[in-house]
Amino acid sequence: MGSLLEYSDAVKLVREYGIEAPESRYVSSAEDAVDFSRGRSIALKVISNKALHKSKSGVVMVNLTGRDEIVDAFNHLKSRAVRGRLSPYRILAQVMAEPGTEIIIGGSTDAQFGKLVLVGMGGIYVEVFKDFAMRVCPINEYDAKSMLKELRSRSVIAPDRDTERMVVELLLRTSKLLTENERISELDLNPIIIRRGGYSAVDIRVLV
Amino acid sequence: MNMHKRMDILFNPKSVAIIGASQNPDKVGHVIMQNYLDMGFSGSIYPVNINADGRILGVKAYRKIGAIDGGVDLAVIAIPAELVPSALEECGRKGVKGAIVVSGGFSEIGRDDLQDRLTEISERYSMPVLGPNCLGVMDLRSRVDTMFLPTFKLDRPKIGGVTFVSQSGAVGSTVLDMISHEGFGLAKFISYGNAAVIDEVDILKYLIDDENTKIVLFYMEGVRRGREFMEIARRFTQIKPIVIAKGGITPEGSKAAHSHTAALAGSAGAYDAVFKQFGLTRANDVDELLYFGKIFDTEARCTGKRVAIITNGGGMAVLATDALYNNGLELASLTKESEKKLKRFMPPIVNVRMPLDMAGDADDIRFKAALDVVSKDPNVDMIMVISLFQTPGADSRVAATLIHYKSETEKPMVVVSPGGNYAQVHNQMMESSGIPVYASPSTAARSLRALLDYSEYVRLTGEIYGSKKRR
Q1: Same domain, residue pair A135 and A89
Q2: A6 lies in some domain
Q3: What is the CATH number of the domain that holds A63?
């Protein structure tokens, strides 16, 4: 069974492959979180091996602006973590991404065929709607395009050529990352928030 | 050992020893021997049975394979599993060039130890071994038939370009029986069972260079060498199509998943991904193997998704139009010029639009006129003719007209012809002339879609994968 890669290391890893993740760091106190925000809207997340699907466990708070909101959220998360027996845990502060469409790009390992890369509608309902396409790594541009073509949500995920090119590029980078890092058994970039002209991988989970 | 380079002996032996041949008609070895005789195999046949005394089915029998004078190309082994390893060892010592182990009782019932011995002996003698627990092979050209199913129970197909490969013997024999009632012919049948030695990768590596195989229909439950399978599949589909039905789809793979991705992926998902990525056509059931097999056997390729529908029955055309759109295809719209020409030939009651309903009294002249125009229209990628033989105007001349245009046009063309005996007679005429005939618009549309997907795949990946076109 794999173990979860430290969040900051996971961010570093995806950035090495040119995948953009929002600025983030662990914060040690409510004050520290306020310092981090510098007036920007932020999210706070409890990071613990015992809370694998964060939004399901209610340990993520988003769109926090201003000192009071941040302090309240920090204290709330702390008590949630204690009550949920999530120790050892840490709290991560992250700059909020611009709003957009949530997609998932991920990777897993098949015993027979090796690394797989996946794309689909993202967020918390991925396993409900199961609208995704998958290929074996490494993929080429044709593969990436045909993956998008396969999705029911293709017109939502890639409504125009530029966005399509951007998602194709993201898929190629993810495939490269998975191919070159044999030890990664599972990867979730979920969600990646995409919008016209940009995207942000706001939650990253790497199992090694 | 390059197994696939040695496999040809399984299909083209000059001499065959049947180990377990018997005078007793209840024995598998008896049926296999009888089939060799029935098929008119022209090489030498040596029945081998430990208790042999004199002749089996009129042919001189041997107690041991070693006792046979002269060489033996192929041994077909149908004796209890416990005895197989020593028999195979004797084959090796005798210098037999290949063996087919029909017997069951190996890893499928947990006797991995027995099966491992077959693998070891095969390697030691560089002797290709098919099976165990399989039906073996059938090659109608060389008249080799190792199946233990008598010819009166299981019809043998005619000779053609379709090779059918099946991991399972049961699916294998059933589909084979069905194929013999379809319009297309068989190149080879391979049932490979437990794959102790020869597996799906070896088989595809062998078939990619087999001149007689134009398309492959495949039933499998799993792949042993995933990476190598993908490599050969990628090369294979650039040259000829593979239609594949995969059994044993279980959610097992997602049990241990920690992430959304792994939960979605599962092991069925991985196969699905591989098939899509490397251009294999997925069949969801055995009947789809045959539907898709028929259309691929014509060797036609599509240029696009615009389908012309020509019919003598309006209601069927409505169903067919729905079927097209349900499968991501489109109704073609004819050029102005085509419409003008059609108006000249059709009676005033016919509206010359797609779908073209030529009315219930349409005869071969009307079919001919319509096909003449539509088959030349640049706005048409594929043709679906719905000929209802129950109508007053439709008779053998209509079937003959369709056969004529099928050979004329480059565009993929299918016929939908549901019905009873009268329709069936004409369907057989058309099928044996190479027209894929379907009983419903939806099966026809699904098959056209499969052909389109494959054609597009080859067109779009040809450059990337350096396609070597055979035709």
Answers
A1: no
A2: no
A3: 3.30.1490.20
Q: Which domain holds residue A158?
A: 101-207
Flag whether residue B277 sits within 8 Å of chain A, measured between CB atoms: yes
Counted across chains A and B, CB pairs separated by less than 8 A come out at: 96
| Percentage of chain A modeled with pLDDT above 90 | 79
pLDDT digits (tens, 9 = 90+) for B43-78: 999 999 999 889 999 999 999 999 999 999 999 999
ipTM of the complex: 0.89
Cα torsion B126, B127, B128, B130: sign: negative
Return the beta strands (E) in B144-185 as ranges.
Answer: 144-145, 159-166
Q: Which of A53, A134, A205 sits opposite B265 (nearest CB)?
A: A134
CATH superfamily of B1-133: NAD(P)-binding Rossmann-like Domain (3.40.50.720)
Q: Which of A95, A118, A150 is the last residue in one of the domains? A: A95
Which residue among B258, B264, B276 sits closest to A127, beta carbon to beta carbon?
Answer: B264
- Architecture of domain B154-297 in this structure: 3-Layer(aba) Sandwich (3.40)
CB B459 within 8 A of CB A142: no
3-state secondary structure of B15: strand
Same domain, residue pair A84 and A181:
no
User: Among A120, A136, A187, whose Cβ lies nearest the Cβ of B273?
Assistant: A136
CB contact under 8 A, A142 and B460: yes
Q: What is the DSSP string of A17-72?
A: TT-----EEEESSHHHHHHHHTTS-EEEEEE-TT-SSHHHHT-EEEEE-SHHHHHH
- At residue A115, the 3 state secondary structure works out as strand
Question: B461 contacts in A (CB within 8 Å)?
Answer: 142
